[in-house]
């Protein structure tokens, strides 16, 4: 059984993340969505909220692909999380060339820690390349419409956090 790990903070999960999840699910038998606890980043959504949003978004993807998709919170090193869940692959999404430099360094460090775990990069679909959780939160905070960037469920959660747009 080929197990892949797709890690991130997912604060919140966006359509770009979901695009990568769907495509990664087609490459493995089991896909673990690793939700980084990372309290140092000061997430808008707490861990339970992020896990629940991802689980709701992934249920139809698991059915569509026939791949087991599960969510696993983690606070340790990424490579240790990969070992914990039995992953042979780490999936990383790339939006732009700027992401590559950081990801390249991360791969080198992970390979030095455990060369048996491979990293696979998936480019986001063109229509999702500009989507970043940070920008989605900023748009929502300022009363903008995030419908094009997140699921209806996540949009509702953002409205609950920030309130409706002010005239």
Structure description:
This protein has 167 residues and is an alpha/beta fold. The chain is 45% helix and 19% strand. It contains six helices and five strands, in the order E-H-E-H-E-H-E-H-E-H-H. The protein has a five-stranded parallel beta sheet with strand order 3-2-1-4-5, sandwiched between helices. Helix 2 (47-65) links the parallel strand 2 (30-36) and strand 3. The longest helix has 19 residues, at 47-65. The termini are far apart. The mean pLDDT is 92.
Beta-strand residue fraction: 15-25%
Query: Percent range for helical residues?
Result: 40-55%
Sheet with the most strands: spatial strand order: 3-2-1-4-5
| Shape designation | globular
Mean pLDDT comes to: 92
Q: Would you tell me the structural class of the helices and strands? A: alpha/beta
Computed over alpha carbons, the radius of gyration is: 16 Å
Number of strands: 5
Q: What brief labels describe this structure?
A:
single chain; about 170 residues; alpha/beta; five-stranded parallel β-sheet; 5 strands
List the helices and strands and how they pair.
Elements: E1 3-8, H1 15-25, E2 30-36, H2 47-65, E3 68-74, H3 78-85, E4 89-94, H4 97-113, E5 118-123, H5 133-141, H6 152-162
Parallel strand pairs: 1-2, 1-4, 2-3, 4-5
Summed up:
This protein is α/β, with parallel strands linked by helices. It is 45% helix and 19% strand.
């Amino acid at each position: 059984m080929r197990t892949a790990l797709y890690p991130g903070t997912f604060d919140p999960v966006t359509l770009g993340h979901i695009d990568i999840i769907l495509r990664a699910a087609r490459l493995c038998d089991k896909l673990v969505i690793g939700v980084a606890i990372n309290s140092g980043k000061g997430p808008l959504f707490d861990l339970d909220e992020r896990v629940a949003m991802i689980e709701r978004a992934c249920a139809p993807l698991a059915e569509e692909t026939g791949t087991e998709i599960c969510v696993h919170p983690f606070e340790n090193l990424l490579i240790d999380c990969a070992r914990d869940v039995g992953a042979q692959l780490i999936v990383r999404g790339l939006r732009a060339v700027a992401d590559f430099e950081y990801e390249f360094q991360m791969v080198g460090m992970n390979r030095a820690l455990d060369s048996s775990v491979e990293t696979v990069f998936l480019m986001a679909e063109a229509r999702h390349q500009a989507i970043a959780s940070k920008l989605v939160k900023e748009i929502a905070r300022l009363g903008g419409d995030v419908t094009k960037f997140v699921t209806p469920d996540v949009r509702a959660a953002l409205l609950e956090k920030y309130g409706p747009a002010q005239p």
